[in-house]
Amino acid sequence: MPYDFTKPGIRSFEWWAGVLEALSPTQYPALARTLLFQGEVPVMGETVNWDLLGQFAAAGAEPNDPNASPLPVRPVVNQARQVALTYFSEEYPIPSAVLAERPPGVPPSGVDEALVRNNVDQVLVRYVRDLRDRVVTRLQAIAWGLMVDGEYEYQGRGYGISLHSGRNENLAINAGVTWSSTGDGNPYQDLQVLLNAVARYGGIRPDTIIFGGTAWTYAIANETFRQALTPSQSGPSILYTAQAGGQVTPTTAEAAYTPTLLGQFQGVSCYLCNELAADGTTPYLPETSVIALNRVAYGGPVYYGTIQNFRAYTGGSVLVPWFPYDVEDSYGKNRNLVLETRRLWLPPNVNACGVLDTKAV
What CA–CA distance (Å, rounded) separates 83 from 55? Predict the structure, then answer.
């Protein structure tokens, strides 16, 4: 439905922008965001050169050798891949009842206008937060896709995302022997292979291991791995013991802590991924997979670029993290809250992350 941009909004752009600045971080679990998103960086324009973000790789060596030492780092030849920052335009219908809302129990003849405005503002603030969270959730899905598969594809309403990192194929590893709830397999050896592969091809030792739920259950059922797991040196940790039948029970719990820090394996912090994608059922990390990465080398800022919207400035182009506004349709029947942004998260060193499938080939 066409919009009528000649009519004034119910709130000014400055009001909407102030709401975004004042909002606290989203409350849903955000392991990828916590570990990888390092602030925000503006980009003049609509693209970013992925290969100039700091991608590195180590010189070649035989893969899957747990006894091999990491080799020196060398920069990858610059391929100058220009990647478009994804344009997001999220909308939320503002019900007419919200705009006509009165405080509960107050008759129309005795309405306190300040109280009415405060009630409406609270609803609008919630709408702004919901729209921003939709975009943040999509950015988290991008991060998980790149960690797990080395690529991410998505076709949304009005926009599409197609990212192929070019991660070294030797960073996708299968277990030597399939892990199981009865302790089968060799998690200790397989994790050594994974850590050394990241060090070799990414040029830096991992500082983080992320377990899928089933992979963690299988790992902790293995006596050798369980004995190698130590408490975390900083922050809360959760250590587990295996019981008969492969059941796993926490010996200490920090239920309020997100993300869940399990302990350390050879000095590397271990986390549990218990987060679900937007559908509410699919885990971001496959249950039987394990990721190893270096947060400094693989993490980076969220880049945001210019959007084209004549409502912002006369020039029609504006560089802001978020551009919110409300607008009425040309028939005067509906009013929508709109949030525009052009942003993307990309790992600077795509080879600083590897993935292990706990199933043998």
Answer: 14
